[in-house]
Amino acid sequence: MKCGDLAEKLTDLMEGDLEEAEEAAALEHLATCQACETVLAETRDVTELARDHGRVLLSEGDQDRLLSRLLQHVDDSAE
Ligand SMILES: [Zn+2]
Fold this sequence. Notes:
Helices cover about 80% and strands about 0% of the residues. With about 80 residues, the chain is mainly α. It has one domain. The protein is globular. Zinc ion binds next to α1 and α3.
């Protein structure tokens, strides 16, 4: 799995919607990619913050911001 693939699956991963094999591939990528792991850690913080305020899911705006940051990292790390 590449960073861009992970970005596409990030919201599904957070919501537990991935199939087992996809989730395993995503977690494997996260284990080997510091930048994606950092983005996901920040995403989790935001998700937990949202839960504290009674919202289970990120707003679409929040998701877009987080995904664009992840994709920016993908661009930065592209050869
Ligand atoms: Zn990555």
